[in-house]
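Q: Second attempt. The first request was missing the SMILES, so the protein and pyridoxal-5'-phosphate are both included now.
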Amino acid sequence: MLALSERIRFLEKNVFADMDRAKTEIINRGEKIIDLSLGSADLPTAKHIIETIEKSLHNPENHRYLLHGGTAEFRKVVASWYQKRFGNFVDWETEVLPLIGSQEGTAHFPLAVINPGDYALTLDPGYPSHAGGVYLAGGQVYAMPLLEENNFLPQFAHIPEAVLAKAKLMILSYPHNPTTAIAPRSFFEEAVAFCKKHNLILVHDFPYMDIYFGEERPVSVLEVDKNKEISIEFFTFSKSYNMGGFRIGFAIGNSQLIAALRKIKSIVDFNQYRGILQGAITALTSSQQCVAETVRIYRERRDFLVSELAKIGWQVPLPPATLYVWAKLLPPWQQNSIQYCVELLKETGVALSPGAGFGKHGEGYVRFALVQPPEILAEAVAKIALFHQKTC
Ligand SMILES: Cc1ncc(COP(=O)(O)O)c(C=O)c1O
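A: Got both inputs this time. The predicted holo structure:
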């Protein structure tokens, strides 16, 4: 055995690896999988965005390293986009940073602010790169439980004083993956006040800002922390524009935090390919009809899946946002989401995400990703019904 780093140990406990192994076995047997386990959109990137990227390929200017100054146009577009959309001024020179996806940004950010042993407060269940980035930076994670009775919002009053004394950072993300919860403005007001009181830096990962289905518009943390005193927010093109494979996002926030993250990234990467940045500029500056169409499709799938599940006796709440359905497991599976998902996959070829993979408080749930059309969702539910007849 070679001697690997201590930090690798934290990354080994990945339950999604069990699912991947089971998926590979089935695929190798030549059998079909209905994969509802990943939030990777099946919908195409809009034609006008693809055309911009395609054109960029033929310009040799775009074949070089893209150093920091070369992203000025992107940063200007992002700053004015934010200002138009959320009504708050953003300085393109000091408050915007392009990213190779929000995951890259949120995973690298703790390296800029965490010293070994410092605590970060994260959401449980939550997105794996949030805690993962803290571990990579040598920090400790205090996972704030998200319970249904609290609308999947953390209760700040329950954080132990000893943790707060060593805490440096809070990481939030609403609309929330995997619970689908939206946080109201009053929650962000409480979070900003709490972080200011305890000298915490506030990260908000905001990939589902467009994917919501009701009247309640998701709140940007910078609408509340207007002067960007303590906050940094992470955005992506993966969900709104179906550009997950292109790897493009950005951060907006406090200029010191942006500069610190830029320093970390200057060691790690040379920015995203210029043509993809140009595609992203086209996305933000063109008609938003493609986003509305994506939301319409997810809404249709959400309604369809929830009603099909109800027909087989699985009552799940209608998600207010995101491209997921968060479903409480039926007896006897309530405390065994990993085994449920592995056995369901082996028996039926339907892949879901086990709630426990998102943290201890995700146990008892599974997550469906709405990344297949209704006819495939119907097929998946029919297979689940047979599995439940045998096992529930
Ligand atoms: C909360 C959260 N953050 C980040 C990401 C990844 O975004 P990106 O594709 O920009 O890295 C996801 C994707 O599912 C997510 O749910």
